[in-house]
Design a protein that fits this description.
Layout lengths: L7 H12 L1 H5 L3 E9 L7 E7 L4 H12 L7 E4 L16 E3 L1 H4 L8 E2 L5 H4 L6 E5 L5 E12 L7 E7 L9 H12 L7 H12 L13 H11 L5 H5 L1
Parallel strand pairs: 4-5
Antiparallel strand pairs: 1-2, 1-7, 2-8, 3-4, 3-6, 6-7
Length: 238
């Protein structure tokens, strides 16, 4: 109603739309983004360039490939760190989820991820967070490093470099994965044989031994080229 007080959701939407206006005005763009798995030590990270017009469901698919996950769990996007007491953004917090996760969202906590593009939610003023597997809680932080012009035919997404493979699925979060790596490095540990067998079953690549320190950038980019052929995404959204 005219003159009524806006709800917190309406204020958040307005403030964040204003914040993203500069990114939207620049036209077709590639965003150079750094992502890291929060809490990983040594840090698991990637640097990549991605079309600013990818919608969040497509971003989810891309991040699964970039990081090396198997897309077997639920996810959500956030513009705040859920592990911090305070919101590190200057705006009211927002969360985005897929239709499947929103089915049980009776309180309206989530926005529809399919309604937002990457350029709408990631700016150089604040990071974006990506939470994968709501049980193990693999939290990723995305930081915008640079905005570049996108030319026709440019790849939709390209990994520039990265370090260390992502953890194995269902390994119990950061602490669980660190414990697995510790046991693998200590053959005398009582759990060594069982965990070695489990890692072998989860690794899914008998030709290459499991190595947490490796990351194959060319192989990842080959998959990305196949899944995300170069297209004019902005035209598709029009």
């Amino acid at each position: 109603m005219p003159g009524s007080t806006p709800t917190s959701f309406e204020r958040a939407l307005w403030e964040n739309l204003v914040m993203g206006a500069v990114v939207r005005r620049i036209g077709p763009a590639l965003l150079r983004v750094r992502i890291h798995l929060v809490g990983s030590e040594p840090e698991i990270w990637r640097l990549f360039e991605i079309d600013a017009d990818l919608r969040l469901p497509q971003l989810h698919d891309a991040l699964q490939i970039v990081m090396g996950w198997e897309n077997s769990h639920l996810h959500e996007f956030l513009d705040f760190d859920p592990d911090l007491d305070g919101n590190i953004t200057p705006m009211l917090p927002r969360r985005w989820a897929s239709p499947f996760l929103r089915e049980d969202d009776d309180e309206g906590a989530y926005l529809a991820e399919e309604d937002f593009a990457l350029r709408d939610v990631l700016t150089d003023q604040a990071p974006l967070f990506y939470l994968y597997d709501l049980g193990d809680n693999w939290l990723h932080r995305l930081d915008l490093i640079e905005t570049l012009p996108k030319n026709p035919g440019d790849p939709t997404i390209t990994v520039i470099r990265g370090e260390r493979r992502c953890p194995l699925e269902d390994s119990g979060g950061i602490d669980g994965y660190d414990h697995i790596l510790h046991v693998l490095d200590h053959p005398a540990d009582d759990e060594h044989d069982n965990l070695t067998e489990w890692v072998s079953s989860m690794h899914h690549n008998p030709r290459k031994p499991f190595n947490p320190a490796t990351y194959d950038t060319p192989a990842v980019n080959q998959v990305l080229r196949r899944v995300f052929p170069a297209t004019n995404i902005r035209t598709e959204r029009a």
